Amino acid sequence: MPEHCAAFSCSNRRTIASRARGITFHKFPKDKDVRKKWEVALRREGFHASDTSVLCSHHFNQGDFDRTGQIVRLRDGVIPSVFSFPVHLQRVGVSS
C-alpha cells in the first residue's frame, strides 16, 4: 500500500509516478527529541508519528539533503520547515 505524506493537506504518495517526479519520502527520526520537533513542525493537533510515518521532500529545503550517494538522505538534525498552512494554523509574529 502506498505511503502518504503526513503533512497537513499534502497529497503526495509514495508511487512510481512521484518517484519519477523526483519526490523522495523520509521516515520520522527514531531519536525521540528530533521526532518530537518534526511532529510540532507539522502543527497537526494530536498527531503522533508511527514507525511508518513519512514526510515527502517538498517539506524540506534543498540544503537539507545529502545527495552525494545513490540514495537521497536528510542531513542529521534537519527539521521540516516548508509548509502551506491554512490561516488557522499559521503563526503570526513569531520569528525564528
TrEMBL record:
Zinc-finger keyword on record: yes
Keyword annotations: DNA-binding, Metal-binding, Zinc, Zinc-finger
Cited SUPFAM superfamilies: Glucocorticoid receptor-like (DNA-binding domain)
Location of the THAP-type domain: 1-83
A GO term for molecular function: zinc ion binding
Pfam families, per database record: THAP
Domain of life: Eukaryota
Transcription recorded as keyword: no
Name of the protein described by the UniProt record: THAP-type domain-containing protein
Biological source species: Cyprinus carpio
